[in-house]
Amino acid sequence: MLNLVLFGPPGAGKGTQSQKLIEKYGLMQLSTGDMLRSEIAQGTALGLEAKKLMDEGKLVPDAVVIGMISNKLDANKDAVGFIFDGFPRTVAQAEALDELLKSKNEPIAGMIALEVGDEELEHRLLLRGKDSGRADDANPEVIRKRIKEYNDKTAPVADFYKNQNKFYRVNGIGSKEDIFGSVNAIIEKL
């Protein structure tokens, strides 16, 4: 099983590259953002709390997200692999994910980090917000808060995977095809 962490700040292109990986390798995307948005759309208690936190640019509690991931893994045992998109966001989450996957004998093969500067991210998210209807993509102040949250709390997760020799860096600026070529070259080595 090929399990990948697709890493990068909001707007780095994780969703776009995930779709390309799904098409080429038949992997399943586990986007915690999509799982949470689904809960929000269904109006569940989890969804309502998650919406409040997300609209403020804050993270949803780890235990909730790990539980959702475990359920998805169990429901898709015959998958060829998973792309973790938007998770883990903290070292504690990375440790929890490693423990979860270890219990299922399915470790992470590698983390692929899409690197994009803050100004470009803000520009991309504002553009995406015009089409997506997502409140967290339409407000420059919330976007800056999300990027700061990423830089402060999420960027250190890279060191967790560097220490396991599972970290791979990709320039997230350029054509979608060129970026995918770089991502694909890494996967071919795994």
Describe this structure in words.
The protein is α/β, with parallel strands linked by helices. The protein has a single domain, classed as P-loop containing nucleotide triphosphate hydrolases (Rossmann fold). The protein is 61% helix and 14% strand. The radius of gyration is 16 Å and the shape is globular.
Main features:
5 strands; 10 helices; Rossmann fold; 61% helix; 5-stranded parallel β-sheet; alpha/beta
* CATH homolog superfamily: P-loop containing nucleotide triphosphate hydrolases
How much of the residues is beta strand, in percent?
A: 5-15%
Q: Please summarize the sheet with the most strands.
A: 5 strands, parallel
CATH class: Alpha Beta
Q: What is the H-and-E element order? A: EHEHHHEHEHHHHEH
Write down the domain tally.
Answer: 1
Q: How far is it from the N-terminal to the C-terminal residue, by CA?
A: 11 Å
Q: CATH topology, which one?
A: Rossmann fold
Q: Identify the CATH architecture.
A: 3-Layer(aba) Sandwich
Helix amount, in percent? 55-70%
Q: Structural class of the secondary elements?
A: alpha/beta
**How many β-strand stretches?**
5
Shape: globular
